[in-house]
Amino acid sequence: MKIILGFSFGHRGNEPGLSNEAIAQAIREFDFDRSCVQWEIFLAMKKTSTVANQVIWEHHEPFKYLDTREVARQMAQYLHKNNFHKEEILVFAHPDHLPRCMSELKKLNISVVPIKAKIPYDPESYQIHTRCRLFYTVWEYIALLYRLFYKY
Q1: What residues form DSSP beta bridges with 114?
Q2: How distant is the alpha carbon of residue 87 from its chain centre?
Q3: Can you tell me the distance from the alpha carbon of 39 to that of 45, in angstroms, rounded to the nearest whole number?
């Protein structure tokens, strides 16, 4: 059984945006049995009637930002709850975001296969750090310092 996990990358308000459209397209090219994706990818998948079995919409705590760690945590819950954690698990994400997605899943003892797809940055994304590689690199360094300082 093949399980797909999809981490989003930016968005355009209530629209998935260029990056998530590309991630959804990459997912559509795979034959899979189950999927767990963030809402931005779900919206893009829905346009072509591709099924997402589990959608991550928000942080489990009200008013908290849905970060990569929380998405990975909810994905791990989905996998364990359905006894999918021992299946072949494929992870889709923007190539620059993929290492952090993999790292967060590894901390949760989830073994996955990264799928490297050509995913563009979205210059019109609402999230500034997902508009170009320079902004994302700066964001990642700040996030790394935060995680080190606060042992997050």
Answers
A1: 91
A2: 19
A3: 10
In whole numbers, what is the pLDDT of the chain averaged over residues?
95
Is 42 in a helix, a strand, or coil? helix
Q: Cα(131)–Cα(105) distance, rounded to whole angstroms?
A: 25
Q: What is the C-alpha to C-alpha distance for residues 127 and 2, in angstroms, rounded to an integer?
A: 31
The parent domain of residue 37 ranges over 2-121
Q: Tell me the one-letter amino acid at 73.
A: R
CATH of the domain at 48: 3.40.50
pTM given for the model: 0.94
Strands 34-38, 54-56: pairing kind: parallel
Residue 115 lies in a domain: yes
SS3 54: strand
